[in-house]
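Q: What would this chain look like folded?
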Amino acid sequence: MSLIPYDDRDGVIWYNGAAVPWREAKLHVLSHGLHYASCVFEGERVYGGRVFKLAEHSERLGRSARLMDFELPYGAEEIAAATREVVAANGIAEGYVRPVAWRGSDMMGISAQKNKVHVAIAAWEWAAYFGDEGRLRGIRLVFADYRRPSPETAPVGSKAAGLYMICMLSRHKAEAEGYDDALMLDWRGRVAEATGANFFMVQNGELHTPTPDCFLDGITRRTAIALAEARGVKVVERAIMPEELAHADEVFLTGTAAEVTPIREIGPHHFQVGPLTRQLVEDYAKEVRR
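A: My prediction, written as structure tokens:
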């Protein structure tokens, strides 16, 4: 199966206030965001031509930028309107949206307060993150070598490009070893998240999830919690230690890309795709198309 490079596609990308031909949406090699990771982004899903939780994603992009010490030149409503424009212009019915903002090339060096902030939004058709088979059977994870950093060492509340470096390395290693993803612990040795999705486990009919104090409190995470509570399921946010996985009845991930994805294996631990996970997969699939 051949892949179409992301820099050589048809369509348009919204770039600094205007729709431009896809292949012309470029940045300079000396852009600050490329060298010093002064870049934030969002990941959004399109269902039936509509972006799920668009307002929340657009607002979070602005918050992420402020945590990285820069302001977007567009407000959340303008970003949302531009996103709808891009989805429509590219004829995306079922797909993915990537808004991204970065400091440009006006200054080169760690200090770059006067650099222009650029914003772009792209949208394309996209299938299931782990494939339909993974969604139905459950995916396999291995423990990551790298750990999520302390809030004292990084702006962990920002969806910033630099924070995904250890995610990329962990995912690459997991895939090289035949796994689908990696489970990351935090700097204290507690369960944190996968490389791009939040973590949940079922114990005695209750849903347990790590407290998001050093990783993103995902929009899909909050949606899954609300769906579970609507069914009368008790949800517990707390510190979870890796040895507790031995006593979990079900385990799954949530994320804009991953949606609700069951897990069947984490290192030495094996799980069944159980009834609560299956129910939340179904409930989420309905929620995104309401």
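The two ends are 34 Å apart (CA to CA).
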